[in-house]
Every structure is written in C-alpha cells, then in structure tokens.
Specification:
It is globular, with a radius of gyration of 18 Å. It is an alpha/beta fold. Strand 5, helix 3 and strand 6 form a beta-alpha-beta unit. It has one domain: Aldolase class I (TIM Barrel), CATH 3.20.20.70. The strands form 2 sheets. It has an 8-stranded parallel β-sheet with strand order 4-1-10-9-8-7-6-5. Helix 1 packs across helix 2, helix 6 packs parallel to helix 7 and helix 9 runs antiparallel to helix 10. 46% of the residues lie in helices and 13% in strands.
Amino acid sequence: MWRGCLTALVTPFRNGELDLGALEKLVEQQIAGGVNGLVPCGSTGESATLTHDEHIEVVAAVIRFARGRVPVIAGTGSNSTAEAVRLTRAAEEAGASGALLLSPYYNRPTQEGIYQHYAAVAAATKLPLLLYNIPSRTASNILPETIARLSRIENIVGVKESSGSIAQVIEIIASAEPGFTLYSGDDVTILPIMAVGGGGAVSVCSNVAPRQTVEITDALLAGDLARARRRSADLFPLVRALTMSFEVNPIPVKTAVALMGVCAEEFRLPLTRMAPGNRERLEKVLREYELV
C-alpha cells in the first residue's frame, strides 16, 4: 500500500468560504516537494467545522488538482457510522485512492462498537481504508487486538497511529495481518515508529517543509537510520513549533502556511488565531528555516 510521507492538508478559508485557489497552490507545493500522498479533510484540515457538502467539495478538488500524480486518501471519518459511509462513498465516487477514518469520537464506543463501525464502512465501499487512532481527540483507544481483528477485513489496509505508545505500535505490527501498514500520526514519532516497522507517516509538518519530511521517511524506508536521525534532528525545532506548542493543531501549521503566503490566516470557530507571543515564536522558527 502507500508508503512514505502523506501530507495531512490544511483547508484554506477566505471570508468564511473555502479558498480552492489557495488549496490548489498548496497541493502543487506538496507534489513539487516530493510527498507520496495527500490526505484532505483530516483533523489538520478542520474537518469538524466543514459542512458535509464542503467536505465532499474539498476532497473532489484535491483529487482534481493532484491529477493522478500522487494518491489522495480522503478523510471520511465521523462519530456517526451512517455519515462515515456517506462521506466514504462520496470520496470513492470522486476518484479517491483510499479513505482515512477517524475512530468514532464523543460516543466512547466499546471495542466491539469500534469494530462494527469500521466493518460497516468497509462493507459499503471498495476503497482501501486506513483506521485512525487518536485517543486524545476521540476519548477511546483502538486496542491492538481490535486493530488485528480489523486487519483481517480485506480492504482495511492500515492504521494511522497517534496513541503515543510505542509499545502499542510494536504490538500492532506484530499482530496485524501481513501487508497491513502502520503510519505515524505525529511528526515527532516518525523516527521511532518507522524504525520498528512502520511504513510511513501522515504528516502535519510536511505542509510547511515537504521535502525535508520526505527525506526522513525516504531514509527510513531505505534502512538508513543514521541519515534519518540527522534529518530528524535538523527538523525537530520546526516540528516542535508546529505540533508541540501550547496551541492545538492545526492552528500553528495553518498560521505557518499563511505566513509563507499560501493562504489566509483564517480559522473557523471554535479555533482561533495564535496568541501574539506564540505567533512571534513560530515566525522566528520559520525565519531560521528560511521559509518566510
């Protein structure tokens, strides 16, 4: 399946509406930077504040802009199984290469409920599906045994793992079906997760520094751990500024993309602009990397 660096795209807005011109510019920059795939409408894409029609429009636009040069794995998750089915089918009709499904949030389902949710979506589409495990946002963890069980469903092909537990990562890799791919869901864990057998990353940082992020995943896929360590150390101050600050994702990364002149510095409530002091610190880091 897909390997390497997949970018979790921000969704540009202007005057309260989608800014598809800025989105096209971002897609072109990503492809020029060598990323291995694009993931619209995930957490970084502010999917929680998109209407269903906007969600479908963004996915279709990214597919159109990519023109088959890289795969597009559409974020189609929901806390409602019926809504997740609808969004996934729409992505399939638009020509997506696959779909990434956030584990149901707020409901706090049992492990059996999580299994049945994903199994229902898988039965409703022919698309390859990635699970997305991020307990800090969903209030539930997809346990390794549940992921192993889901990996036996033919078109569930991988998981974006953001639990923060390397022990869980190792257990998933050991217990899942052959060919099932685990992706790092946090830039700071790309090195350790891929070092123990992960196949790539769904990256936030690559919105801003695609080529540098790709260098890390390429080195790890090639088995060059020393080079990956060097590249990770080089990029860490930027990763920290974008994903480990006091501001929640995607506020820092979208602010960075805006400072780079790609899109407006616009969010939808309840997300707000960065606090002035944090924004100044972020801009300083971007200058150090010669990105602004």
